[in-house]
User: Fold this.
Amino acid sequence: MRFLIQKIDHRVKHDFSFTLLESIEFQKWFQNDKNVIASKYIDYYDYKNWCFKPFHQHYVPVGSVEFVTTWFERFCDHTPKPINVPEELFKYCNRIIWNGNENGYIGYEELFVKSNDNIKGFKEFINSSKPLPKGNYQFSEVTDIESEWRAFVYQGKLVGLQNYSGEFTMFPDVEQIEHIIKAYKSAPIAYTLDVGVFDEKTFVVEIHDFFSCGLYGFSDHKILPYMLYRWHHEYMGKHKLYGNKL
Assistant:
């Protein structure tokens, strides 16, 4: 496994990058092999001017969304789109949610809207008086959330659960989370499942492919490098982005 880890101002700054570096050291000790994982660094200046070298295609990029998507643009002419909430999990959202274009929200007083086209794209609370730019969106009724948790899923199994917002003593229903995981038939090999808790109910907030995801303390050194590596190569394979196998 080879990872291309982003630096910002000559420093590693993302929590997932720090934890990956710790995991690499753990793997070297655990497997008693200093060559088990190689890591390469690239400095950050302005993402529009990153100069990835041809050999960087053999590495898994680890960094901000902009860093990783620029890698995909450089080597694949293709970038991942947001998952948001897949339709097969709409019934686990504790709110009405649907996909549509810029005209798909007329008549609602307030909605939460996220782009279905771009990660870190349009994301706002809107009402019917605010026009949307042309594009594809996911619309959601506004709902109260008392506590938010990030579940980490690998190979169809819950492997971690971290609080990232709200009341940390209000624990989610783990059995419900596992039920949601089982229902997500089209899931990638590694992903994060954000859930909310309100009025003792646990429900889906959104899902992210396993790159550029805040860990909020998740640090399973035995599997973290594999989650990053295998998500990347599964995605590349699914979208037929390899010329020759790297």
User: Anything to note?
Assistant: The two ends are 11 Å apart (CA to CA). The mean pLDDT is 88.
